[in-house]
Write a structure and sequence with these properties.
Elements lengths: L2 H9 L14 H23 L5 H12 L3 E2 H8 L3 H13 L3 E5 L7 E5 L1 H23 L6 H11 L5 H9 L3 H4 L1
Antiparallel strand pairs: 1-3, 2-3
Helix pairs in contact: 2-6, 3-5, 3-6
């Protein structure tokens, strides 16, 4: 285990409850910023080579994970406006990473699918980020994945958790357990 992680573990044996914390949780806030910076940085470097950014990554990730996703569903997942999505989606369509097809029952609907090229890029990005998770979890006790998932779910607004579980696992939070 890394020295910084060992030092943290030894100096913080007794966990504080949220009620005991009166000052801002600067340690958690800053660790979260740095972890996120490095987590997305791996993908950023690959995306930069093709002129894409984080917004392209988010769109491609969810289109790849849910082929046939409607634009309205994607907007809801990402929590952005149609105007914010338009430029990024146009670039992904124009460069052949995503394709839009008419809906089966409603031809006015636009359903989004990854192309083979888009699928490969999405998987390359997911592999990069999965390796970072594997490395981090490898430095923790073997049963750390479950508590890590619980922590990340707890960070999500309670009203959104079941919807997120459905997106991630295809079932509600209760069914996941």
């Amino acid at each position: 285990m890394d020295q910084a992680l060992q030092a943290h573990s030894q100096s913080h044996k007794a966990a504080q409850t949220s009620a005991e914390v009166s000052a801002p949780a600067f340690d958690l806030i800053e660790l979260f910023f740095f972890a996120y910076r490095d987590f997305v940085g791996d993908a950023d470097r690959l995306l930069e080579d093709i002129g894409f950014g984080r917004a392209h990554h988010r769109v491609l990730h969810f289109v790849n994970r849910q082929p046939g996703l409607m634009i309205a569903e994607l907007l809801d997942i990402l929590g952005i406006t149609k105007q914010s999505l338009n430029r990024v989606l146009k670039e992904l369509l124009d460069t052949g990473y995503v394709e839009a097809r008419a809906g089966v029952t409603d031809r006015r609907q636009r359903l989004l699918f990854p192309t083979p090229k888009g699928h490969r890029l999405a998987m390359d990005l997911s592999d990069l980020q999965s390796r970072r998770f594997e490395r981090a979890l490898g430095e923790l006790p073997t049963d750390a994945r479950g508590p890590a998932i619980d922590f990340l779910l707890a960070m999500i607004d309670p009203a959104e958790r079941d919807r997120v579980c459905s997106l991630v696992w295809g079932k509600s939070r209760e069914e996941k357990s």
